[in-house]
Amino acid sequence: MANIPVLEIFGPTIQGEGMVVGRKTMFVRTAGCDYSCAWCDSAFTWDGSAKDDIRQLSAHEIWSELTQIGGKKFDHVTISGGNPALIRAIGELVELLHENGVKVALETQGSRWQDWFEQIDDLTISPKPPSSRMETNFDVLDDIITRLSSKAREMAPSLKVVVFNEEDFHYAKEVHARYPDIPFFVQVGNEDVHTSDDGELISTLLRKYEDLIDRVVEDEMMNDVRVLPQLHALVWGNKRGV
Ligand SMILES: C[S@@+](CC[C@H](N)C(=O)[O-])C[C@H]1O[C@@H](n2cnc3c(N)ncnc32)[C@H](O)[C@@H]1O
Ligand SMILES: Nc1nc2[nH]cc(C(=O)O)c2c(=O)[nH]1
Ligand code: SF4
Ligand SMILES: [Mg+2]
């Protein structure tokens, strides 16, 4: 059985972002990313700083740890990273979770396709705006969206763009216009992913949330859009494992 590089397994907590915000869930965070976003809040997954903490686990070992930590207090698991879409073996984990009656969400940036995407219940694709200093390959993204849209399934993907500035907002509008039928979310960017001053961070994030709401409210191209903060950041700041 192929192994999966894992950095964190935690929960139950709530999904703090996007299409199933507020949903009680466990998290599995994989190691490794094909991007290096300037403002990544999980840079330890790819910058080498946590390389000694990476564990190569089988799907069964991950399931066993999920139940050890979460007991019977969960029926939903979110796989994030890093970019979990780099790892083919996650297909086995998705299958195992489903066999156990657990729903599965995925967080990925839309730079790589995996056949197991079609099995994901809540799939969030988060293409990266200019402030990240990453370049979106729209050929790849078009292909992913086409494949997911052509499936007559209950599962529908969503798009989530993090916005830090005017240029990012413009990028978000382009992405929404390109895929008008995909549920679209804009998310407040956290500019200070290292501070432990929760009070200061939370008031800044709430101010930025209001700014982002204002932008969306005033823009006729952004009518069918949801605006969200990272709920977990408002509750726990930059704390890891929540
Ligand atoms: C750490 S990423 C891991 C999954 C995948 N690599 C991706 O980027 O979609 C999880 C989510 O956090 C978002 N994110 C990362 N850093 C952020 C920050 N500083 N502020 C707001 N959202 C951030 C990403 O855009 C993504 O939607
Ligand atoms: N509570 C909580 N919600 C989240 N939504 C996306 C997360 C991520 O890091 O991918 C995340 C996370 O790390 N914690
Ligand atoms: S794609 Fe996701 S994990 Fe990778 S660097 Fe960007 S935000 Fe971080
Ligand atoms: Mg996070």
Automatic annotation (TrEMBL):
GO terms for biological process: tRNA queuosine(34) biosynthetic process. S-adenosyl-L-methionine binds at W39, C40, D41, G82, S126, P127, K128. It holds the Pfam family Radical_SAM. Homodimer. Belongs to the radical SAM superfamily. 7-carboxy-7-deazaguanine synthase family. Catalyzes the complex heterocyclic radical-mediated conversion of 6-carboxy-5,6,7,8-tetrahydropterin (CPH4) to 7-carboxy-7-deazaguanine (CDG), a step common to the biosynthetic pathways of all 7-deazapurine-containing compounds. Mg(2+) binds at S42. Gene3D superfamilies: Aldolase class I. Its cofactor is Mg(2+); [4Fe-4S] cluster; S-adenosyl-L-methionine. Residues 20-238 form the Radical SAM core domain. Its EC number is 4.3.99.3. InterPro entries: 7-CO-7-deazaguanine_synth-like, Aldolase_TIM, Deazaguanine_synth, rSAM, rSAM_sf. Keywords: 4Fe-4S, Iron, Iron-sulfur, Lyase, Magnesium, Metal-binding, Queuosine biosynthesis, S-adenosyl-L-methionine. This is 7-carboxy-7-deazaguanine synthase. It catalyses: 6-carboxy-5,6,7,8-tetrahydropterin + H(+) = 7-carboxy-7-carbaguanine + NH4(+). Pathway: Purine metabolism; 7-cyano-7-deazaguanine biosynthesis. [4Fe-4S] cluster binds at C33, C37, C40. Binds 1 [4Fe-4S] cluster. The cluster is coordinated with 3 cysteines and an exchangeable S-adenosyl-L-methionine. Binds 1 S-adenosyl-L-methionine per subunit. Substrate binds at I14, Q15, G16, R29, S80.
